[in-house]
Amino acid sequence: MEQAGMEEVLTAMAASVMHSASGMSKWSMADLTLGLYKLSGRHALEGAVDTIKGAPIVLRSELENILEWLQWAKAAYKRDQRSLASVLRIREEDIVTHVGTSDVKKPAYYIIKYHRKRCIVMGIRGTSAAHDVLTDLNTHCEPFEGGFAHSGMLAAAQWLLRNEGQTLQNVLKENEGFRLVLAGHSMGAGTAALLGLLLKETSAEEANVSKILKIPNEMITCWGFGSPPCVNFELAIASSFIHNVVLQDDVVSRVSPAALEDLRLEVAQTEWSQAFKEGSTQRQFVDMVHETTQRISALPITPPALAVFNVAKEKGLSKILSAGNAVVSQIAGKSSRTSKAGAWLSLGTAAAGTLLQAAHKRVSHGVQKSLSEIEEKTRRSDQQVAVSALAIQAGTSTTKTEVLLQRRLHLPGTLYHILRQLLPPGLSPTNVGGNGARTVTHTVVKGTDPNSRFSRIVLSNTIFSDHNSPAYIDAMVDALQCASRGTTILLYGSGS
């Protein structure tokens, strides 16, 4: 990703972190953006990864099944029946219901009779327009099934149940022996999971039969892709009928107020020296700055002047380091020993002001846009979809830290992680059967330990683009091709 793209990523992250927990209000937007830049360097240097304990899927049939339901989840973004039928290669008369527009806590969806696999499929649209982004302005939780759930997505699931519960019962009765499959991407995936849990509620008379659908609970399945965390841990591990797939660093599948609080603490505990490789130009510059700080602190300087220096140091350090090696080398190489502090301080102060203005302008522009402007932006870019979903999902502002940690939300069900890995040395795209242009390969890991869940936000330059539904498609197609050739690779451990 280009520099501007990474800056946008970190600014969006800062906007989300600012509103996620009580401690955030003590940090300015610029402080958080700088801190996240620092932490992103540390994550890159350490090769940080958040994955699950599991085993790579090598069976072509299993990967084909995941890819098929991913395509059904993506189809929920179609806005008319003709294009919906075309992309799914079904007859229009098999579409039972199709609602192509959405409203707050009222997502778009379809219900289709899928004769080839003898199932009724309900696809729920995710975050593709501003109305969907507004599914939940605050990530409050509420009691649910003996635990708790994300209130916004639960409200959407309850609305779908009220409106289409009877329709689902009728169509399943008319098509005896058909299963029900729920599918969705992004917030549609979270809503599908919660709807599945609602539909599996039973009566005292029939313990294993859905009291709403009148079919055995074992005939209800859910597939989610890029879902936000939406239930507590106990519910998450008890919902094996749900299958949740996450692409590499997709931030939406990891973000919650508790996860953002973890991120804030990680930022606070990270030193600039941890962000750059030993011996690199940036690391040398950081060491020089720290040495300068020690020398200035030893001088008879007034507290206000020292405070100004420290502010300029932190902001200037980030701005200069993010500007690239050329600027760093110029300052570190051409300035004399005695003039380094003065030259750096003046440049740092100017850079601090510039960055502060840019950060505030960018956040104001993103947060205060009109509804129509947000809609247009989200239509243009799936990356903006992820930014919007992230900001909405992080919307709690005054919850105490201990409550956030107690109410940590998780992805429910069986987990899958699509890992993107660089091809190892000596293994060229040609000898893994590629077209000569590939530099990465994808492997799908299926979770084997229910206690191993996604939990850490890793600051990479793909945290938003990994949420794109087309990116999920491309990665699954590549994983399937690798499995077909017998070239599935697992370069780093799958959480073990």
TrEMBL record:
Domain (Fungal lipase-type): residue spans on this chain: 121-258
Family matches, as CDD domains: Lipase_3
GO terms, biological process: lipid metabolic process
Xref: SUPFAM superfamilies: alpha/beta-Hydrolases
PANTHER family xref list: ALPHA/BETA-HYDROLASES SUPERFAMILY PROTEIN
UniProt name for this protein: Fungal lipase-type domain-containing protein
Phylogenetic lineage: Eukaryota, Viridiplantae, Streptophyta, Embryophyta, Bryophyta
